[in-house]
Design goal:
Blueprint: H1 9-12, H2 49-56, E1 77-80, H3 81-87, E2 93-102, E3 112-118, H4 120-128, E4 132-135, H5 144-164
Parallel strand pairs: 1-2, 2-3, 3-4
């Protein structure tokens, strides 16, 4: 005969002291499980390693990337010609003023692109296709020679002032 209604587990376990949790102290708090939340997931913890790797991948443990305080990351955004072709298909003018354009891939006909910077290959490919590469703002980088010349001028002006006194 088939059982029509299955009794709830809580009802079935009435009369047992621990309701299937083993010794009484094992179900009292999170101490039995090694701590609250992500506790015990340190670098050397085998305790929850498989769970963390499944959830976050292998990059959760250990150091990644540049750790030197003096090394500055390049925070500027990059985009390849191939990606521009996919994202902005059919457009004649594209404003990517916060991006640097890289030359990987091909570009459609006669597209005018405004960007922060272009690589040589990207600029050549755009112009070969009949388009224009326009710089949104020109970043002027001071060369060490210019800085030294300014310092010399300031020193010579200071010497002249000292001689007049």
């Amino acid at each position: 005969m088939i059982r029509i209604k299955k009794r709830k587990k809580s009802q079935r376990l009435r009369g047992t002291t621990t309701h299937g949790w083993g010794a009484r102290k094992k179900h009292k708090g999170s101490g039995h499980r090694g701590g609250f939340g992500m506790a015990g997931t340190g670098k050397r913890a085998d305790h929850r390693k498989s769970l963390i790797i499944n959830k976050y991948g292998n990059k959760y443990f250990g150091k990644q990337g540049i750790t030197s305080k003096r090394t500055k990351k390049d925070k500027s955004k990059f985009i390849n010609l191939r990606d521009i072709n996919k994202k902005y298909a059919g457009k004649k003018e594209i404003n990517l003023s916060k991006f640097k354009i890289l030359g990987d891939g091909e570009i459609g006909k006669g597209i005018v692109i405004t960007a922060q910077a272009f690589t040589k290959s990207a600029k050549e490919k755009i112009e070969k296709a009949g388009g224009k590469a326009i710089l949104s703002r020109v970043r002027k980088v001071k060369k060490p020679v210019e800085i030294k010349e300014k310092e010399k001028k300031i020193e010579s002006e200071n010497d002249v002032k000292d001689n007049k006194k």
